[in-house]
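I'm stuck. Please check this protein.
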Amino acid sequence: MKKITLVLLMGIALVACKKNKSTSDCGNKMCTEEFVMTGIKFADKNGAGAEIKDLSVINQRTGEKLYAKSSASISTVKGYYVVLDDANKLQLSEQGDDLKITGTSITTNQTKSAIVKVSGGKCACHISRISGAEQITFD
């Protein structure tokens, strides 16, 4: 009975390995279980958080409009908006993509944009912010 159970478990393990063949292209990677998010702060001319409307994140490589996919994208810090999270990593290249982030101030109706470079990809454990503004300030 023990031999049958052992053979059955080995068979299941082999089938599981074959189903995960697509991830084997990435080599042996150890990833953490954290969930990474990246965002941007919109501020008024005094540096205080500014509420915005019409938040837009456009991948400049693909033209695709991106949205943070997690329910954690709602921020409790005024003016800070989560724009992407690990659920978006397959929409990004490993080299990093330029993302045009745009928002319109509710107070002044002024629209401002910034470019932020974020990487991801099939083999990435998490998204990673490479460069770009961390704050957009309205006049």
